[in-house]
User: Which sequence fits this backbone?
């Protein structure tokens, strides 16, 4: 899209851990997760138009072709209705992240579209009024609006910023498969999995050892069922942890993307090369947490 367009990066969202702490009467699950955001993601570009138009490009555009009503168009219409916007927008989504991969692609896209469209329509002063609208689009959309390290609880509406006092580097690996979040939660319900206890996190995490301890105590409550549904996820985790340089590893969200934590981006790059050489069909991306 032309350089005069407004752009926003839809940063990949990574659940460093994920606890399922309960379920409300309306069916929504209660979550407890330490969430971080990468310096890489999908890209949103918008420019003026009389109507709403969405074009999807990028390496993973094909994964969205079967979608009836993309979340970005739904987001745009909700904003138009809420603020009585009579303008349209031409929107381009550059889909760099795998689809249905546990790293918040759709939610991050919706959040980035909110930011870009509100700038285009000159309503950025209304951003603080969007909590309910964001949550109606998905549990991860509110946290993706801020796209900062966060302790996320409730159904995604209780957000508390967390500060890392050190740089954090990850290697993201997806084995070229999509995983249905709804299917994973159904599997948990079928075998009546126990809920985890909610926990308290300090506002600051001061060392990598402290983070490693936190993740060792928590983990991802969806990992077992995701690995049962897609056994290749276990293989991904094995490949990530083969490296002696991997400090900790886990699965993000409901899968299938997994991550390893490393001391530097160079070390993450070296492991990316090793995995890509053996598994050329896998999506492998070293990132820095912003």
Assistant:
């Amino acid at each position: 899209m032309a350089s005069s367009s407004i752009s926003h990066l839809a940063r990949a969202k990574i659940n460093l851990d994920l606890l399922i702490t309960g379920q409300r009467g309306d069916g929504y699950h209660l979550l407890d997760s330490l969430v971080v955001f990468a310096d890489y993601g999908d890209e949103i570009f918008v420019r003026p138009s009389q109507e709403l138009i969405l074009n999807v490009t990028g390496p993973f555009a094909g994964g969205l072709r079967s979608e009836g009503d993309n979340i970005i168009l739904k987001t745009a219409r909700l904003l138009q209705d809420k603020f009585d916007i009579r303008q349209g927008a031409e929107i381009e989504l550059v889909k760099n992240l795998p689809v249905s991969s546990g790293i918040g692609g759709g939610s991050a896209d919706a959040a980035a579209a909110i930011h870009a469209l509100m700038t285009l329509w000159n309503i950025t002063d209304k951003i603080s009024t969007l909590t309910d609208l964001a949550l109606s689009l998905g549990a991860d959309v509110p946290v993706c609006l801020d796209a900062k390290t966060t302790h996320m609880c409730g159904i995604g509406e209780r957000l508390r910023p967390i500060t890392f006092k050190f740089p954090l580097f990850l290697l993201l690996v997806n084995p070229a498969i999509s995983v249905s979040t709804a299917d994973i939660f159904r599997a948990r319900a079928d075998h009546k999995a126990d809920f985890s206890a909610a926990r308290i996190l300090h506002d600051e995490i001061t060392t990598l050892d402290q983070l490693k301890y936190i993740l060792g105590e928590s983990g991802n409550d969806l990992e077992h069922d995701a690995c049962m549904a897609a056994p290749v996820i276990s293989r991904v985790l094995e490949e990530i942890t083969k490296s002696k340089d991997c400090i900790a590893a886990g699965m993000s969200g409901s899968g299938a993307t997994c991550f390893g934590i490393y001391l530097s981006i160079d070390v993450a790059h070296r492991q990316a090369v090793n995995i890509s050489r053996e598994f050329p069909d896998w999506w492998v991306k070293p990132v820095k947490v912003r």
